[in-house]
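Structure ticket #2291
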Amino acid sequence: MDILLLLLGLALILGGANYLTDGASALAQRLRMPEFLIGLTILAVGTSMPELVVSVLSAINGQPDMALGNVVGSNLFNGLLILGVCALVRPIAYTRDNIRYDIPFGVLTSVLLLFVASDALLGLGVKNVIGRADGALMLVLYIALMLFTIRHTKRPEEHETKQPMMAPWLMILMIVGGLCGLIFGGELFLDSATKIARSLGVSESVIAITLVAGGTSLPELASSVVSLLKGKADLALGNVIGSNIANILLILGLSSLINPLTMGGVTHFDLLAVLMTSILLMMTAYTFRSRTLDRAEGVIFIALYAGYIYLLIG
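Resolution: structure written out below.
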């Protein structure tokens, strides 16, 4: 029964994120917002909405293992498994902006996560806690990064779209319905995952890094593969990198602002794995002349993710 409720909660989360994103996009279209701004804000945050809901609810319920483990697991799922699968489908060529801005920003964000979660190691406190001050700093950095990206993103040439406007009542229904699906689905998913972890004698952090993170990362997987099949590799790569940055700065920032997050079952090995994933991606962009994430590297990424999960469970 817990497994069925878990799947039902996941379905509500994914469906809610989909409807909320479509409704918000329709609202942006009605307000005549630039398309690049829609993709940068609404759609990017939309695919990370399941992680946001689960982590925030975990923080509210006093479950730091679930909140932090969800983000750590999602970033590893995104950076290794999703990019590995995408590279197998079609090699991903890096753009100039990916190499100059996106990938380095991803590495710096991972370094920041390791830093704010190492109070005891750095002599800044008795316990390793991501506190409210850390959360406020991460939120400020996320806003600054978004403003920087908007400023350096070239606006496409304006053109008239023939896509019909969505009816106002339908737009409002999708936004409200999407939010309800996310909230109720998140509560159901989180409660079921916690019960499964306790019944199996497995820590909540392990469940969060594996089961919860994989489930909440399905929107990124689906959108990245679809973008790649449509010949938009830059969108697939940008979706993964942008989602990983949002997971740390936006989601953990907001969660720790609500309730300080202790490390719990999440270890520095897990945080180092997140950092090494970002560095590995940067190495494929800088050290090889092709500047392409090819199929051989995709196999390596998938194998590394499988090895990490094996070590985690073992």
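Closing remark: DSSP finds 13 helices and four strands in the chain.
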